[in-house]
């Protein structure tokens, strides 16, 4: 019950954040849809908390808005000395067999840290994805996963790690028979625009 409540809360929070950033930048739903390969109808449902969204689409939305992916999950508040309990972790909308939660919080903005859980056979999605041009460290806490990195395939077990540019398409699959847990550390945070006017698409409406 608690997990469902957290997921529902975060889905609503993400929708509210997308709408707040979009309206602050005077972008129409259609403009944002064109920039992210989605539709105005889908974005409207997302903003009202009526639709889920996968990781790759959220990354495109964050990039079009000129923000970090982190900005779509975090609630405002001080982070210095603040404990983040396991059940309080901001979470991406869950996908089948895969859960990804945010560990880093403001004002720590130099890197993003996520923890992921994969059921046997669970993956980050059907296709590899890339995001920004940062440095990513991937660490396996438990289980066995296969990481596709461009044309390479790496089988990693508990205690193994690998580093790569976030611009290289990548995908993770749990190839073991038990739950796999991993950590992603990204520096600097991806989808951050230093100059919003430069990175944001211009809106005609």
UniProtKB/TrEMBL annotation:
Coiled-coil ranges from the UniProt annotation: none
Residues in the signal sequence: none
InterPro entries found in the cross-reference section: Cro/C1-type_HTH, Cupin_2, Lambda_DNA-bd_dom_sf, RmlC-like_jellyroll, RmlC_Cupin_sf, TransReg_Diox_bact_type
Domain HTH cro/C1-type: 18-72
Source domain of life: Bacteria
GO molecular function: DNA binding; DNA-binding transcription factor activity
Keywords: DNA-binding
GO cellular component terms, A-Z: cytosol
KW Coiled coil (keyword) present: no
Protein name: Helix-turn-helix domain-containing protein
């Amino acid at each position: 019950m608690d997990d469902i409540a957290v997921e529902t809360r975060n889905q609503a929070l993400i929708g509210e954040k997308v709408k707040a950033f979009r309206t602050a930048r005077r972008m129409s739903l259609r403009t944002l849809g064109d920039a992210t390969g989605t539709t105005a109808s889908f974005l409207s449902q997302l903003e009202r908390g009526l639709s889920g969204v996968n990781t790759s689409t959220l990354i495109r939305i964050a990039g079009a808005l000129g923000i970090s992916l982190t900005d779509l999950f975090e609630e405002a508040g001080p982070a210095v000395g603040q404990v983040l309990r396991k059940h309080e972790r901001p979470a991406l909308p869950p996908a089948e067999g895969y859960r990804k939660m945010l560990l880093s919080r403001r004002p720590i903005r130099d890197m993003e840290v996520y923890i992921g859980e994969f059921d046997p056979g669970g993956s980050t999605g059907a296709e590899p994805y890339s995001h920004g041009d940062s440095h990513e460290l991937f660490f396996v806490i438990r289980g066995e996963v296969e990481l596709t990195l461009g044309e390479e395939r790496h089988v990693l077990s508990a205690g193994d790690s690998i580093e790569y540019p976030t611009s290289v398409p990548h995908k993770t699959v749990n190839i073991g028979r038990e739950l796999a847990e991993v950590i992603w550390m990204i520096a600097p945070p991806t989808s951050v625009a230093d100059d919003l006017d430069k990175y944001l698409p211009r809106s005609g409406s």
